Structures are given as structure tokens and as C-alpha cells.
Amino acid sequence: MKYKLLFLLKYPMTALLLILLSVCLSFCLTSSLGHAERTQDNICCFADTIKSAADILNNEFTCPPTTANTTSATTTTTTVTTTSKYEVCEPERLAGQSPNSKFYQERLAIAGDSITLGLCYYGFIPNMHNIAADSVSMWNLDYFTFDLGGGEMGMVDAIDYVHPRLLYMSVGMNDVNLNYPDPYVERYREVIEELIKRMPDINIVVAAITPVSSYCNVVRNDIIREYNAALKDMVMDMDLPQVVFFDTYSVVCDNEQNLKDDYSSGDGMHLYIPCYNNILTALFDFLDTTDFKQRLGG
């Protein structure tokens, strides 16, 4: 009896409900005695009472939200969609100072020549995101294949196999002495258009050819600048929000428009670790000025 009283005190609405049901049930039963024709009406009345009781019980046992003497924190969850299991890969060496450096670097795939290959060689890009090799150029691109686990493939097929949404392309150091700006950018554009056709959600950074040191006699920086000017015009002419030109040349050159001495790996052409670190820092700062992060789902 004691526990029944405590229950009724704890849930007063329930107690009222039980009394109401008892009275209603008694009324329905006594009223129906000798009055058969009103039985149906009494049953309907009883049914309505049951429905009201159910509503009361629902309110009684449903916990209302607590607002007094509490603090709440809003958590924003960003859902990042990926296009392949290879899209996001963690590199061995982190670079860049922007707030989003890690986000970009984990998604960055590269395609190009030996200059570009250094990003993978020094651990800034994982092997699975590397589609770069020695001696690659636009004039001989069709002769090179890459094996990322799916067999030997050409550059476009290999990029499609990885299916990145952020691609850094840097091809041209091997074109400067063996090609001309017009056919160079024409082939470059064909490759980009084919990539976009296959992967409409890809975002491409077209990087300028880097300069060489003042003592390098293999290529000339004034010719490199001609190629870069043609490359920039090509990107502007394409006028696609998912394709941007990144002026790598200006990032690594000195006041005389030559490669900074401490950026060379020794031959005056290939780059060393500090140079790649600074390139990626500048690249990620540049990407923060675009909508690429949003395009990548970040």
C-alpha cells in the first residue's frame, strides 16, 4: 500500500487518470443496465476517455527538454564525400602553414616529370598519389606508363584509376628544348579536357615550369617563361572554375629570375626538400583563396 501511495504522489496525472477511468467505467456499466439502447453511446464515450487517457500517459512519461541551469554546445559535423578509396592518403611528411594544409595534402595527387616526382621522393606525396616520372613531357607523354596496382597504364588512365579530386600537374621542363609553346599547350589542354570528361568532379592545378639556377646550361629561363606565359593563357582561355594556374616559378625564383641557390638539389634544375616545402606552403595558401576546399567537400 505504501508503494502505491508513493507512485500516486510521484505521478499525480496518472492518479487522476485512474480515478477518471474508474468513474467513467462505473458510469458506463450502471447506465447500460436497463438501457440497452444506450450501450453503444456509452461504449463510444468510454473509447473517447481511453484516448484522452493515452494522451495524458504519453505526456506524463515523456521527458521534456531541460533548459534550466544547463549549457548546450553545438557540434558541426562536416560530411566529406570521396570518389575512390585512394582519394585521401596520408603523406609521410607534412608541409604548409595554412589552416587547411593537411586537408589539401592528404588529397593532393601529382602528375608530371622528374621535378614533380620530387614531391613523392621526399615524402610529401604518398606513392598511391604519384603519377610522375623521369623524362615525362607533353611531346612524349604517350610513351610512358604507370603501375599503381591495376597494371601498366598511361598517365590519363592512371589518374583515372586513382580518381583524385585534387590534381597538381607540372609538366614541361623536358619540353622546353624539344618542343614549342603552341603544340605544348595544345597537348596539355587535350589531357586536361580528357581528365575532366572522365572525372567531372576533378579539380586541377596547372603549375608553372620552375626556373633553373644561373649556372645551369641545360635550359634557359627566358624560354621557360615563354612556356609559362602560354600555359597561363591556356588556363585563362579554358575559363573553367575547376582548373587554375599556379605560378610556381615566382615562388622559387630569386630577384634575377633564377632558381634560388639553396633550392637546387645540386644540378641547378632539380629541387631540394626546402623548395618543395615552400612550394606546398604557397600552393595551399593559394588554394585557400579559391573555392577548391568547398569543391573537395571540406
Distance between the termini: 62 Å
Mean pLDDT: 82
The largest sheet, given as strand count, sense and whether it forms a barrel, is:
5 strands, parallel
Briefly note the structural class of the backbone. Answer: alpha/beta
Spatial ordering of strands, largest sheet: 2-1-5-6-7
What is the tally of beta strands? 7
The level of helicity is: 40-55%
Spell the H/E element sequence. HHHHEHEEEHEHEHEHHH
**Looking at the structure, what is the overall shape?**
globular
Beta content comes to 5-15%
What is the tally of helical segments? 11
Radius of gyration of CA atoms, rounded to a whole number? 35 Å
**Low-pLDDT regions:** 1-21, 23-47, 49-80
Write the layout of secondary structure elements.
Elements: H1 2-10, H2 12-32, H3 39-61, H4 101-107, E1 108-112, H5 114-121, E2 130-132, E3 146-147, E4 152-153, H6 155-162, E5 166-170, H7 181-198, E6 203-207, H8 221-238, E7 243-246, H9 248-252, H10 273-287, H11 292-295
Parallel strand pairs: 1-2, 1-5, 5-6, 6-7
Antiparallel strand pairs: 3-4
Helix pairs in contact: 1-2, 2-3, 7-8
